[in-house]
Design brief:
Elements (H helix, E strand, L loop, with lengths): L12 E3 L2 E3 L6 E5 L6 E6 L3 H18 L4 H17 L1 H12 L3 H18 L2 H4 L3 E7 L2 E9 L2 E5 L7 H12 L3 E5 L6 H12 L7 E3 L4 H9 L3 E7 L2 H13 L3 E5 L4 E5 L5 H13 L9 E7 L3 H13 L18 H16 L3 E4 L17 E4 L6 H4 L6 E7 L2 H10 L2 E2 L1 E5 L3 H10 L4 E4 L15 E2 L2 E3 L5 H8 E9 L3
Parallel strand pairs: 7-8, 7-10, 8-9, 10-11, 12-13, 12-18, 13-16, 15-16, 18-19
Antiparallel strand pairs: 1-2, 3-4, 5-6, 6-22, 11-21, 14-15, 17-20
Helix pairs in contact: 1-8, 2-4, 2-7, 3-4, 4-6, 10-11
Bound molecules: nicotinamide-adenine-dinucleotide.
The site of nicotinamide-adenine-dinucleotide (NAD) has 28 residues, from α8.
Length: 488
């Protein structure tokens, strides 16, 4: 039987409740990172496509802002139900377009669902404040109102969770939304939009415009887009923050990271090594909360031996295989970048104790690398300073906790940091002095849940109000103060 090769679909944009062909005609391939197989094509939309989406979202806002908050929340309850019902399907889609392990993808979907859960609390979250008698016979009240059209720009590494950090809460607060998914992982966004419509969202409330720089710039420059949520790499985060803020928009821009884990001499070495292995090499190190630098305090040779043993034993492969921990990186170009980082580590004198360039010969189709570990890395080396975003781990040696904390202070990034110890005094010192926004005590990935802010510091975040939690509500609403006199 002859097989006719199906033509790979070019994804459509979702504007005003309809699937529409972008005005721009060019598109790029979306390969499955584990197999190299092209699974979709993503259109590279232009500013005219953005214009259409903004017009739809602006029109939808006129009614959506007046929909009673409990009614808005009910759509989110339904959405929560639908996402839960499709949990496995969504996780498989994450694996197909991002490459991470199914277990990780399943967890990511769960994290996304929790954001919807949080946003469904909008009636309570959006409550204002009142104070009677601020002066004689005078009362004050604060009400929250949405901004209007909000733009969200997402990275490739969490195609489910990051968009769900953004649009459910923004929309629950009464805004309408335009999502620009990563062009490297665009498929899930369309499924999220489909299910949102099935949950009862009116047309134009959530729109999806696929593409790259032009769509981003279109959103940053459009006067009808009032706020921007961005998550991505550091240079782009800073650019987005500066350009959108210069245009008078409210912006939150979550950025890159270099997360340090401090291993104290009293730590349970086996458990600490296990946590570090899954933090550094799970999702191929492509998590903004991944451990990418370990500070080994004291004579850490025994710990390093244990870490190497566990790294040597981890299984590299396709994320759909149960036992696999280390999955492919997102693109061949990213793999090349990482290979250059390994070269730079060697040139600058770090000691390579696990060489990820080897051991993946039978995985030629996808973008695979083994685990790489450098020991005796100095803080001024490139592999100590830069976010490499892949399965490369740098070990720095320190005499004391003070010295370890100094490495964290000197890093330009401050997303997360962890300490492994049983010593309460060390824990307290770490909590008080570690210069980062999300700390772990014996926890490998101290990412916060939907009801707390995702709280990076320094160059890991540009803006004021973070995503999620009360910060998220404050970000997506503006306050109106009423001062009333009654003796008139
Ligand atoms: P990226 O910066 O390449 O892309 C993010 C988004 O910006 C994409 O939608 C992309 O189309 C757009 N973009 C890229 N270059 C642009 C440009 N020059 N002008 C305008 N728009 C542009 O990021 P990525 O590689 O997709 O994601 C990985 C990065 O995201 C890592 O640095 C990671 O640390 C970071 N990240 C941070 C957090 C956090 O919470 N701090 C969470 C997830 C990911």
């Amino acid at each position: 039987m002859s097989m006719i090769k199906q033509e790979t679909k070019v994804l459509k944009n979702y504007i005003n409740g309809e699937w529409v062909e972008p005005i721009a005609t060019n598109s790029i391939d979306v390969p499955n990172p584990a197999t190299g197989e092209v699974i979709a094509k993503v259109p590279i939309s232009n500013t005219e496509d953005v214009e259409k989406a903004v017009a739809a979202a602006k029109e939808a806002f006129k009614e959506w802002r007046h929909v009673p908050v409990p009614k808005r929340a009910r759509i989110l309850y339904k959405y929560h139900y639908l996402l839960t019902e499709h949990h496995e399907e969504l996780a498989k889609l994450v694996v197909a377009e991002n490459g991470k392990a199914y277990k990780e993808a399943y967890g990511e979907v769960q994290r996304g669902i929790e954001c919807v859960e949080f946003a469904a609390g909008a009636p309570t979250l959006m409550m204002g404040e009142t104070l009677s008698n601020i002066a004689e016979e005078i009362d004050s009240e604060m009400f929250r109102y949405p901004h209007g059209v909000v733009g969200g720009i997402a990275p490739f590494n969490f195609p489910m969770m990051v968009p769900l950090w953004m649009f459910p809460l923004a929309i629950a607060c009464g805004n309408t939304f335009i999502l620009k998914p990563s062009e490297r992982t665009p498929m899930l966004a369309n499924r999220l939009a489909e299910l949102f419509t099935e949950a009862g969202a009116p047309r134009g409330v959530l729109n999806v415009v696929h593409g790259a720089h032009d769509v981003v710039n279109g959103l940053l420059d459009h006067e009808d887009v009032k706020a921007i949520s961005f998550v991505g790499s550091q240079p782009v985060a800073k650019y987005v923050y500066s350009r959108a803020a210069a245009n008078g928009k409210r912006v939150q821009a979550l950025s890159g990271a270099k997360n340090h884990h401090i291993v104290m001499p009293d730590a349970d070495l086996k458990k600490a090594a296990g946590n570090i292995i899954s933090s550094a090499f799970g999702s191929a190190g492509q998590r903004c909360m991944a451990c990418s630098a370990v500070v080994v305090v004291g004579d850490g040779d025994e710990f390093v031996k244990e870490l190497k043993k566990q790294a040597d034993n981890l299984i590299v492969g396709n994320g759909m295989d149960d036992e696999v921990l280390l999955t492919p990186v997102i693109r061949e170009s990213q793999k090349e970048k990482l290979l250059n980082y390994i070269e730079s580590g060697l040139e600058e004198g770090a000691k390579l104790i696990c060489d990820g360039r080897k051991g993946t010969d039978d995985l030629k189709e996808g973008y695979f690398m083994g685990p790489t570990i450098f020991d005796h890395v100095k803080p001024e080396m490139t592999v100590a300073k830069e976010e490499m975003f892949g399965p490369i781990l740098s070990l720095l040696r320190a005499e004391t906790l003070d010295e370890g904390l100094e490495f964290i202070r000197k890093s330009r990034y401050g997303n997360g940091a962890t300490i492994y110890t049983k010593d309460a005094k060390a824990v307290r010192q770490f909590r008080e002095e570690a210069d980062a926004g999300m700390l772990g005590i014996n926890v490998g990935v101290p990412a916060t849940m939907a009801f707390f802010p995702f709280s990076g510091w320094k160059d890991s975040f540009y803006g004021d109000l973070h995503v999620n939690g009360k910060d998220g509500v404050n970000f997506y609403t503006r306050k109106k103060m009423i001062t009333s006199r009654f003796d008139y």
